[in-house]
Structures are given as structure tokens and as C-alpha cells.
Amino acid sequence: MAQRLALRRLLSLTPRRPPAPPGRAFGTSAGRRSTFNVQDGSDFQDRVVNSPKPVVVDFHAQWCGPCKILGPRLEKMVAKQEGKVVMAKVDIDDHTDLAIEYEVGAVPTVLAMKNGDVVDKFVGIKDEDQLEAFLKKLIGA
């Protein structure tokens, strides 16, 4: 009985945060704003092929272990570029047609696109230094 009373007192002293407004997420970061999931072929055309900025395209799959390592690492590196480049994530199971069109034979496959053209590509995991060099080459820095 005394424990319950003490717990109630403790809970009444703990400040409570108001609930987040609907549709808002906690902890938005620059990395999230510079990264998006491709919804379909026309979305890919609009946001990747017709993008005025260079685009890093991450072809991945939910079941792919290396993709789960590379994806967050790549998002972090793209966010560091402060808007000079954006990142499109393409799930090959949902968008097989895009994977075939861009000759994705293994995941993760990452394309660097500029003005609608593939200008560079790699397959597999890269460390942060290699990713930074890949991005700087794409941006032209």
C-alpha cells in the first residue's frame, strides 16, 4: 500500500508532455528532409530524373542485412551535404520495374544521378570516408 502511494506521488510530480499534434513526428532531422521513399514510377521520374539537384538513389530491400547498415550511414552523409544533394530510397521488392530498368543485380546498389543521367554507381557497403568521396564527386566539390 505504501509503495502504491509513493508511486502515485512520484507520477504526480513528473511533468507530462502534451501529445504531439496529429501527423507530426518527434525528432525530425535534416537527414529526413533530404531523404524520401520513391512511391512509384512517376514519382521517380518527377523527384529523381527531373531533379534540379544531384540525387543519390539507394536500391535496397527490407530483408537485406547490408542494406540496413548502409541506409542510415548514407542518409547521415547526405544530410551533412546541407541540401546540395537529395537521396531517394527505392525498395526493389515494391519497384521491380525500376530495379530492372537501372540494372540492379544485387542490393544494396547506389546510383549517383545528375540531370537524369547515372554518373556513378557502387554495389555493397562503403565506409563513411568512401561515401564522402562518392558524394563529393557527385556534387563536384
From TrEMBL:
<comment type="similarity">
    <text>Belongs to the thioredoxin family.</text>
</comment>
<keyword id="KW-1015">Disulfide bond</keyword>
<dbReference type="Pfam" id="PF00085">
    <property type="entry name" value="Thioredoxin"/>
</dbReference>
<dbReference type="InterPro" id="IPR005746">
    <property type="entry name" value="Thioredoxin"/>
</dbReference>
<dbReference type="InterPro" id="IPR036249">
    <property type="entry name" value="Thioredoxin-like_sf"/>
</dbReference>
<dbReference type="InterPro" id="IPR013766">
    <property type="entry name" value="Thioredoxin_domain"/>
</dbReference>
<keyword id="KW-0676">Redox-active center</keyword>
<dbReference type="InterPro" id="IPR017937">
    <property type="entry name" value="Thioredoxin_CS"/>
</dbReference>
<feature type="domain" description="Thioredoxin">
    <location>
        <begin position="14"/>
        <end position="140"/>
    </location>
</feature>
<keyword id="KW-0813">Transport</keyword>
<protein>
    <recommendedName>
        <fullName>Thioredoxin, mitochondrial</fullName>
    </recommendedName>
</protein>
<dbReference type="GO" id="GO:0045454">
    <property type="term" value="P:cell redox homeostasis"/>
</dbReference>
<dbReference type="GO" id="GO:0015035">
    <property type="term" value="F:protein-disulfide reductase activity"/>
</dbReference>
<dbReference type="GO" id="GO:0005739">
    <property type="term" value="C:mitochondrion"/>
</dbReference>
<keyword id="KW-0249">Electron transport</keyword>
